[in-house]
Amino acid sequence: MEKWKEILNTDSTAYDGSGLYGNLGQIVAEAGEWDGFPAHASVVLPPLGAVYFEYQPGV
User: Fold this and answer.
1) 4 in Cβ contact with 55 (< 8 Å)
2) Is the separation of the CB atoms in 6 and 23 below 8 Å?
Protein backbone atom coordinates (compact mmCIF):
# COMPACT_ATOMS: atom_id res chain seq x y z
CA MET A 1 0.00 0.00 0.00
CA GLU A 2 1.25 3.45 -0.92
CA LYS A 3 0.08 6.51 1.02
CA TRP A 4 -0.43 10.05 -0.24
CA LYS A 5 -0.94 12.93 2.21
CA GLU A 6 -3.52 15.56 1.31
CA ILE A 7 -1.58 18.84 1.56
CA LEU A 8 -4.15 21.21 0.04
CA ASN A 9 -7.90 21.01 -0.42
CA THR A 10 -9.53 24.21 -1.65
CA ASP A 11 -12.88 23.07 -0.20
CA SER A 12 -11.42 23.20 3.33
CA THR A 13 -13.00 25.69 5.70
CA ALA A 14 -9.47 27.13 6.15
CA TYR A 15 -9.88 28.49 2.60
CA ASP A 16 -13.54 29.51 3.09
CA GLY A 17 -14.74 26.31 1.40
CA SER A 18 -17.74 24.26 2.49
CA GLY A 19 -15.64 21.57 4.21
CA LEU A 20 -17.90 18.89 2.74
CA TYR A 21 -15.47 17.24 0.31
CA GLY A 22 -12.18 15.67 1.33
CA ASN A 23 -10.10 12.57 1.74
CA LEU A 24 -9.67 12.55 5.54
CA GLY A 25 -6.11 13.81 5.14
CA GLN A 26 -4.77 11.02 2.93
CA ILE A 27 -5.44 8.45 0.26
CA VAL A 28 -4.06 4.92 0.15
CA ALA A 29 -3.29 3.19 -3.14
CA GLU A 30 -4.33 -0.45 -3.08
CA ALA A 31 -2.60 -3.23 -4.97
CA GLY A 32 -4.59 -4.45 -7.93
CA GLU A 33 -4.21 -3.68 -11.60
CA TRP A 34 -6.22 -0.79 -13.00
CA ASP A 35 -5.86 0.47 -16.57
CA GLY A 36 -2.41 -1.12 -16.88
CA PHE A 37 -1.06 0.23 -13.59
CA PRO A 38 -0.21 -2.01 -10.59
CA ALA A 39 -2.29 -0.08 -8.02
CA HIS A 40 -5.29 2.23 -7.73
CA ALA A 41 -6.94 4.67 -5.32
CA SER A 42 -10.22 6.55 -5.02
CA VAL A 43 -9.97 10.33 -4.64
CA VAL A 44 -12.72 12.75 -3.58
CA LEU A 45 -12.56 15.97 -5.60
CA PRO A 46 -14.51 19.09 -4.62
CA PRO A 47 -16.63 20.71 -7.34
CA LEU A 48 -14.83 23.70 -8.87
CA GLY A 49 -11.90 23.05 -6.55
CA ALA A 50 -8.49 21.42 -6.39
CA VAL A 51 -6.77 18.85 -4.20
CA TYR A 52 -2.99 18.38 -3.91
CA PHE A 53 -1.25 15.30 -2.54
CA GLU A 54 2.30 14.49 -1.44
CA TYR A 55 3.69 10.98 -1.73
CA GLN A 56 4.70 9.48 1.64
CA PRO A 57 7.31 6.77 0.86
CA GLY A 58 7.69 4.08 3.48
CA VAL A 59 4.78 5.30 5.61
Assistant:
1) yes
2) yes
C-alpha 54/C-alpha 2 separation (Å) is 11
SS3 56: strand
pLDDT, one tens digit per residue, over 8-58 is 999 999 999 999 999 999 999 999 999 999 999 999 999 999 999 999 988
Number of Cβ within a 10 Å radius of residue 12: 17
Per DSSP, the three-state class of 34 is: strand
* Residues 21/34, Cβ–Cβ less than 8 Å: no
Q: How many Å apart are CA 3 and CA 21, to the nearest integer?
A: 19
